[in-house]
Design goal:
- Helix content is about 40%, strand content about 20%.
- The chain is of the alpha+beta class.
- The strands form four sheets. A seven-stranded mixed beta sheet has the order 1-7-6-2-5-4-3, sandwiched between helices.
- Helix 9 packs parallel to helix 13, helix 10 crosses helix 14 and helix 11 runs antiparallel to helix 14.
- The longest helix is centred in the last third of the chain and has 30 residues.
- The radius of gyration is 27 Å and the shape is elongated.
Length: about 475
């Protein structure tokens, strides 16, 4: 058993806050051993954990000292067992209580675990009262590193939430993205916030871009609290009305919504990009599209194909794009990363990888969306709208749009292939035919003939090819 993390000088609120954080990440089959003397806060911890799992349906959670075991159910149907083994007279009584079976499919919280037999691979929470102040305690988290290593992050999350005044909030996991970041919604009465859990030291770009955008009246979420060293940010909650969901519910809104998206880009591009973002020029675009040649052709059964793609893109960028002043590109500007707020400005998400790039790049991101179909007439109308509003040369802009569309979509296919083969994330493979169709349309532009030639012989992501990639 390895010591994973400690939480010092934890009062009752911080102890309960850690329990609520833990309630958001534990899953059926997990066993928690609560150790500490009488009055150390074991039942207090378990009570906060159980009530957080139950949410609005939270029950009273009495101590199981006399019943030995209490059971609860959360809204997802997980059975939670809360056991107190202090009065256990013989280890065989564990089987009689049903704990052996509960450990297979439920979440089990065990007080006084040393009074029974050894528990199967538990996360051990030690609660030790402070020698100088009995209202404070030192909390230790210990367990086998392969299974419980993630728990080392939990005290840091609890500290930030507690310090920011959200100690009583319940955490609900939110859907993540293709990165390793995790997101949680904090719910405390009628207020809510979003917690971003990123890798230590990786939030500087997000914070810098948030400040840049908000200073220019673009609605990035306000940062409510931060621990940038640990990679933790507490953010304004912009709600659940992602543009993608709004369009799925009301398809007729598409012209209005995409007008707003294009107008936002026009406004954004009136500002000089900050000097701290990556410049996505021809050489960098070529380097990034290397992901496609590295992963997709071999996975699709044509190893060695595609070597000429990166050089073709670099050369074409020099002829079609290099004369246009670079603007700020949010890079993942699409319907999943924008929040519809009615007449209020669109909310922006996932902009930490912003770049300085040709003005067509984010318009491609919005209109050639890997995750959803955009009607051809909508795409053409928005290209026309941008050209008219920005006052750029239409023919050159359309050629650059096609090139950046092809580059971006080829890179996306490479990323999807890598995610499937190296990380087992296969759900993105379903988007491949849509992405390939966009590439095909982009390559039809006469100016992209050299790139089309470099793509010769590489198969489309047919069902058979996708099955091959999935392994």
């Amino acid at each position: 058993m390895t010591l994973l993390a400690t939480l010092d000088l934890a009062d009752a609120d911080l102890t309960a806050c850690l329990a609520r954080v833990m309630a958001a990440v534990l899953k059926p089959g997990d066993v928690v051993a609560l150790q500490g003397p009488v009055g150390a806060g074991k039942t207090h911890f378990a009570r906060a954990f159980i009530r957080a799992r139950q949410g609005e349906a939270a029950e009273d959670v009495p101590s199981p000292t006399f019943t030995l075991v209490q059971t609860y159910a959360d809204p997802l149907g997980t059975e939670i067992w809360h056991a107190d083994l202090y009065r256990l007279t013989h280890p065989e009584e564990l089987a009689e209580l049903g704990l052996d079976e509960a450990m297979q499919g439920g979440i089990v919280l065990v007080e006084w675990p040393d009074h029974g037999t050894a528990l199967p691979d538990p996360l051990t929470i030690g609660l030790d009262p402070d020698a100088d102040d009995p209202d404070l305690r030192r909390i230790t988290l210990s367990g086998a590193e392969p299974r419980w290593g993630f728990a080392a992050r939990l005290p840091g999350l609890a500290r930030l939430i507690h310090r920011a005044g959200w100690a009583n909030a319940r955490l609900v996991p939110l859907a993540g993205d293709a990165s390793s970041r995790r997101y949680f919604r904090l719910i405390d009465g009628d207020r809510s916030a979003v917690l971003m859990d990123a890798a230590p030291g990786t939030t500087d770009g997000y914070v810098a871009m948030t400040q840049w955008l908000r200073h220019r009246d673009f609605h990035a979420p306000e940062i409510l609290a931060a621990d940038q060293h640990e990679g933790l940010l507490l953010l304004e909650d912009l709600g659940d009305d992602l543009v993608a969901r709004v369009l799925a519910a009301e398809p007729a809104l598409a012209p209005r919504v995409y007008d707003r998206m294009t107008d936002l880009l026009v406004a954004l591009h009136r500002h000089q990009p900050p000097d701290f973002v990556l410049r996505l020029d021809g050489p960098e675009l070529a380097r990034q599209v290397g992901l496609f040649a590295e992963y997709y052709p071999a996975a699709a059964g044509t190893p060695g194909f595609g070597a000429g793609i990166a050089p073709a893109i670099e050369a074409l960028h020099g002829g079609l794009c290099a004369d246009a002043p670079a603007v700020l590109g949010l890079r993942d500007f699409h319907a999943e990363n924008l929040v519809w707020r009615g007449d209020a400005p669109l909310g922006l998400l996932d902009f930490q990888d912003a770049v300085a790039v040709h003005p067509a790049y984010d318009l491609v991101s919005a209109l050639q969306d890997a995750r959803r179909d955009v009607a051809p007439q909508v795409e053409q109308a928005q290209i026309d709208r941008y050209i008219a509003a920005a006052g750029v040369d239409g023919a050159r802009f359309r050629a650059a749009y096609a090139l950046l569309g092809a580059q971006r979509n080829l890179r996306i296919l490479g990323i999807f292939t890598r995610l499937a083969q190296r990380e087992g994330k296969r759900r993105y493979l379903a988007f491949m035919p849509r992405v390939w169709d966009a590439i095909r349309r982009d390559l039809a532009h006469p100016a992209l003939a050299p790139l089309a030639e470099a793509m010769a012989g590489i198969p489309a992501p047919t069902p058979e090819v996708i099955e091959r990639i999935a392994g």
